[in-house]
Design goal:
The chain is an alpha+beta fold. The two termini are about 25 Å apart. The model has no long low-confidence stretch (mean pLDDT about 85).
Length: about 160
């Protein structure tokens, strides 16, 4: 059994929003409480902190011989048996794959290079390899990148 945690993809942007917003708020408060920069700075701090503190970062993908599950230590979002996987669209070169569980709430995007997602997954290359090793070859569509797959195939 292996567990791969979700991680924020845009940490640098969030930390920049916190830093610039905090600096802007401090400077505007120091020079005489200029309202617009103070509010803008505070919003930057709040937006960056909200992104970094999101409950999404408690999610993890756990893979075992029976299937995969996505959830937190307290709440399971879904479990998908390997036999229930409708198809996998995978780009082994970018370590990206989409696992179609038959419905959006039972599907998983493992984002790699160029994949549109606000999150990353720890050790995605190993996760993609584990998924490809457990799903029957007939259900796997290999592509150079997910944006080259037919539009109906990959729902993001």
């Amino acid at each position: 059994m292996a567990t791969h945690r979700f991680r924020p993809r845009y940490r640098g942007v969030a930390w920049t929003a916190v830093g610039v917003g905090g600096s802007l708020a401090i400077v505007s408060a120091t020079v005489g409480v200029i309202v617009l920069p103070l509010v803008t700075g505070a919003l930057g701090v709040l937006a960056g902190a909200a992104y970094l503190g999101s409950p999404t970062w408690r999610l993890a993908v756990t893979v075992d011989d029976a299937g995969l599950e996505v959830g937190t230590p307290k709440r399971l979002r879904f479990r998908l048996a390997w036999t229930d996987v409708v198809r996998v669209v995978a780009s082994p070169t970018t370590h990206t794959c989409f696992v179609d569980g038959g419905a959006p709430e039972r599907s998983l995007l493992v984002p790699g290079v160029g994949a549109p997602a606000p999150y990353e997954i720890e050790d995605r290359a190993a996760l993609v390899d584990m998924i490809l090793a457990r799903v029957p070859e007939a259900r796997i569509q290999r592509v150079e990148s997910l944006d080259q797959a037919p539009a109906a195939t990959v729902a993001t």
